[in-house]
Design a protein that fits this description.
This protein is α/β, with parallel strands linked by helices. About 45% of the residues lie in helices and about 15% in strands. Helix 1 runs antiparallel to helix 10 and helix 2 packs across helix 10. The chain binds pyridoxal-5'-phosphate.
């Protein structure tokens, strides 16, 4: 049969066609009223998407650029920071903070797990100036409890800034940034907003803005103070990624339309919530399916809706599953990163994944299981039946998304 290439990866994620068209048409200069209007509109939309009243800044970089900007702008060499690490992206926080001369305390848990609040409380020191964490750890498929961590910082009267890499958390997890007291929230373009890599965005609390004034680190390209001043005039400090910004505007319009409004006028906060529910449903279908097939979840206690990490059967390299899905169905799923390579495979649900995609990857996985996995009690349809059941239950719940599917692409 012919094979259509489909990404099931937690970034880059599948592209929204309307965003691709907007990119192709974005032949405008950035020091013009046309661009300023676009930039101001998109920065305004991002505030709603992120759930903050504070300024959101866009940077021409991958997500790690905004992670670096938050360290370089908010800390000084010698500052004590606490990194909560549960995977490859937690480890990135640790290396980044060390690269900028921070003294790093670590709460580290095995891959596949999340932190106990007790361990975080124990590790906080009176001079801890920042806590760095992921909302969802994409390398292991785990969701961390940002609301509880924020509350813990408030309760313990810590003055530490809470800096959250929500690069795969935004659009897959409810995050009430201002209300919870998250000080920095970071997103990336190649994740829930369905556009190519190349943009990072972040927002800072008033406390975090104060810290940018006292940081002793040198800053130039990623000087957030300068970027904010310019953004408030509808400008970026340097040449912005114009085409990606046009794409982002189109994608946020599409997300707004998921709330049931018109393609241009929908309610973006409600659309974002529908997108989160969508990811939750795809993830719940996938978890039920793989378990019905006889496979085990890598992160059963705190699974994220961004990506599901799955263990191969004992003695099987997960690369076999990744390769077979690609060879037979052109379905691109991700292997484990670093030392998890060969030990897990990951199916993403962040962004533009729908019922049809989810059913298709589950059916393809059944085909691979039939020929390559030798699972006891295997039968076609078991995984699909479990996923169908989850879909039926979730779509019948009034609190979840309406029974009619979200607006079509
Ligand atoms: C994708 C991702 C990043 C950013 O990686 P870049 O390659 O710099 O875009 C950071 N954190 C998490 C949790 C991610 O999933």
């Amino acid at each position: 049969m012919i094979r259509k290439t489909r990404l099931f990866t937690p970034g880059p994620t599948p592209l929204l066609p309307a965003a691709q068209f907007a990119m192709a048409a974005a032949d405008i200069h950035h020091r013009t009223p046309e661009f300023r209007a676009l930039y101001e509109r998109v920065l305004g939309q991002l505030k709603v998407f992120v759930s903050t009243k504070k300024d959101v800044l866009l940077l021409a970089s991958s997500g790690t650029g905004a992670m670096e900007a938050s360290v370089s702008n908010l800390t000084s060499p010698g500052d004590r920071v606490l990194v909560l690490s549960a995977g490859k992206f937690g480890e990135r926080w640790e290396s980044l903070a060390k690269a900028f001369g921070c003294q790093v305390d670590l709460v580290s848990v095995p891959y596949g797990e999340t932190f106990s609040l007790h361990a975080i409380r124990e590790a906080l020191r009176p001079d801890t100036s920042a806590v760095l964490v992921q909302a969802t750890e994409s390398s292991t498929g785990v969701r961390h409890d940002i609301k509880a961590i924020a509350a813990l910082l408030k309760d313990s009267a810590s003055s530490a800034l809470l800096i959250v890499d929500a690069i795969t958390g935004l659009g897959t997890t409810h995050l009430d940034v201002d209300a919870w007291g998250v000080d920095v929230i970071i997103g990336g373009s190649q994740k829930a907003v369905m556009i190519p890599p190349g943009l990072a965005y972040l927002s800072l609390s008033d406390r975090a803005w104060k810290a940018t004034e006292t940081s002793k680190n040198p800053r130039y390209y990623f000087d957030l103070r300068k970027e904010r001043k310019n953004a408030q005039k509808g400008e970026s400090s340097y040449t912005p990624a114009v085409a990606l910004i046009a794409a982002l505007g189109a994608a946020l319009d599409y997300i707004a339309a998921q709330a049931g409004g018109s393609q241009t006028g929908g309610d973006l906060a409600a659309g974002r919530d529908a997108l989160i529910d969508n990811a939750e449903t795809c993830a719940a279908m996938t978890r039920a399916a793989v378990q019905a097939l006889g496979l085990k979840l890598f992160a059963p206690t705190a699974p994220s809706a961004a990506t599901t990490a799955i263990l191969p059967p004992t003695g099987v390299d997960s690369g076999v599953i990744v390769k077979e899905l690609k060879r037979r169905f052109a379905a691109i799923v991700t292997n484990g990163q670093g030392e998890m390579k060969g030990k897990i495979f990951r199916i993403a649900h962040i962004g533009l994944f729908d019922y049809m995609d989810t059913i298709a990857i589950i059916a393809a996985l059944e085909q691979v299981a039939a020929t390559s996995l030798n699972l006891p009690g295997f039968a076609y349809g078991k995984a699909l039946a479990a996923a169908q059941q989850v879909y039926a239950e979730r779509s019948a719940q009034p609190s979840s998304q309406p029974v009619e599917a979200l607006a079509a692409v």
